[in-house]
Amino acid sequence: MTALQVGALVLVAVGAPVVALTRDPLRQALCFGVFGTALAILFFVFQAPDVALSQIVVSAVGLPVIVILGLVKLREEEGEGEEE
Amino acid sequence: MRRSARLGLFGAGAAALATMLVLAIAGLPGFGRYPGPYGDAIEAVGESKTHATDLVTAVNFDFRAYDTLGEEFILFAAVLGIAIVLRDRRGERKRAPGAPGTERGLARPSAALGMVGLALVGPLVVLGIDIAVHGHLTPGGGFQGGLPLGAAVFLAFLAGEYAAMKKVAPHATVELGEAAGAAGYALIGLGGLLFAGVFFQNFIDRGEPGRLLSAGTIPLSNVAVALEVAGAFLLLWNEFSDQALLVVPEGEQGER
């Protein structure tokens, strides 16, 4: 196993608990994007570039956008609730 | 249940899970020592049979093209479901970004952020097309290429150009693109049935391996899937962002 592979494994091992333990959903979405990119690096250094590409587009582009847009809607409704 | 009992139960469960995980991982074959016959078989005949040099794409769109059709329609059905759940309700009206009340939601980004966003639209389009059309040659393919294509259009929205995005990609066009991509992939399968006798059998000249126009129907499948994925995600992001811009008129708030 090369140093690059060990590094990628460590990055993923550290990143996963960080995502799980982040309480604020907005921060969690951003952490997830970074973690997903780390996962993509892991796939790439373990010689699975196809999977790495899918991982990048889903976790760094696809999902965080959906989560953040959902949060925008939720916070707006919370804000309206406070005003009433 | 008392706290100590809960912790005890969790501890026992976690210990058992950890033991089983360690046993399972210890029993895995070493990295690169895959014992099944499938990978070796694909490696041996993949390129000569499909004329595709990226065997992952060859597997996805040739050897198991039928499974990919199923995956295709999972995405299609999932996005359809979201479009139905998030449809405009009676009494809701859209407000344009920048209208009063949207500051908290989707504020117009700073000029610098908007510029960078818009500047990235072109490169993303090129990247998406590049990944999609070279799917049979290098790692990538319709799914991986379709998402950057959709993201490029959505980036215009994130850069604050809501009107521009709606002009380039109106809802109907996005829906049409998604449906055409999904239908196109199914039609490639039907073409195999008609012209070669087997569903998803290749029916056009496979050409010379390594060329852009080679590998028979695989590049066509990649383009169809790219169209579908770009449409699907754009529709998804659109539905979500429309939700963020929807307001319920005063007086009807009690109904929620």
Task: Outline the structure in words.
The complex is a heterodimer of chains A (84) and B (256). In chain A, 89% of the residues lie in helices and 0% in strands. Chain A has three helices and no strands. Chain A has helices spanning 3-21, 25-45, 49-83. The radius of gyration of chain A is 16 Å and the shape is elongated. Chain A is mostly helical and 84 residues long. In chain A, helix 1 packs antiparallel against helix 2 and helix 2 (25-45) packs antiparallel against helix 3 (49-83). Chain B is an all-alpha fold. The longest helix of chain B is centred in the last third of the chain and has 28 residues, at 218-245. In chain B, helix 2 (37-50) crosses helix 3 and helix 6 runs parallel beside helix 9 (218-245). A two-stranded antiparallel ribbon of chain B has the order 1-2. Chain B is globular and about 55 Å long. Chain A binds chain B through residues 1, 46, 49-50, 52-54, 56-58, 61-62, 65-66, 69-70, 72-73, 75-76, 79-80, 84, and chain B through 31, 54, 56-57, 104-106, 131, 139-141, 143-144, 147-148, 151, 154, 233, 236-237, 240-241, 243-244, 253.
